[in-house]
């Protein structure tokens, strides 16, 4: 298996005291994605309302909603690993290979370890 240099990385912990299932996590993911879309639409003025926030405040709110989406997506990966015995590391490698095939990631020789 090839390893790639990581330029940006986020690592989110498993949350304590939660027992999420696949369905409940999926619903939560959709809820958080909706909140992200709402923040983008409302605070960027796409819904016709006047925006009274500074641009940096808008981007800050959007980034917080995006991180909520990321946290729930990571939680869903934990559910897939623990409940369904899916090898997430293997799935990530397959996903990276797909991105390479589609041309979204271009590797230089120096990027391959």
UniProtKB/TrEMBL annotation:
The entry's keywords: Hydrolase
GO MF annotation, one: hydrolase activity
Stored SUPFAM superfamilies: all-alpha NTP pyrophosphatases (SSF101386)
Domain NTP pyrophosphohydrolase MazG-like: 23-101
Pfam hit, one: MazG
Originating organism: Geosporobacter ferrireducens
Entry protein name: Nucleotide pyrophosphohydrolase
Ranges in a coiled coil: none
Keyword Hydrolase: yes
Keyword Metal-binding: no
């Amino acid at each position: 298996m090839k390893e790639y240099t990581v330029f940006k990385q986020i690592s989110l912990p498993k949350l304590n005291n939660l027992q999420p299932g696949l369905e409940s996590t999926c619903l939560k993911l959709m809820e958080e994605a909706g909140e992200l879309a709402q923040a983008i639409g409302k605070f960027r003025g796409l819904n016709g309302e006047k925006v009274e926030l500074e641009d940096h405040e808008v981007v800050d709110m959007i980034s917080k909603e995006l991180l909520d989406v990321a946290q729930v997506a990571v939680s869903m990966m934990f559910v897939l690993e623990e409940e369904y015995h899916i090898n997430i590391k293997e799935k990530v490698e397959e996903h990276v290979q797909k991105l390479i095939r589609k041309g979204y990631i271009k590797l230089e020789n120096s990027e391959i370890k």
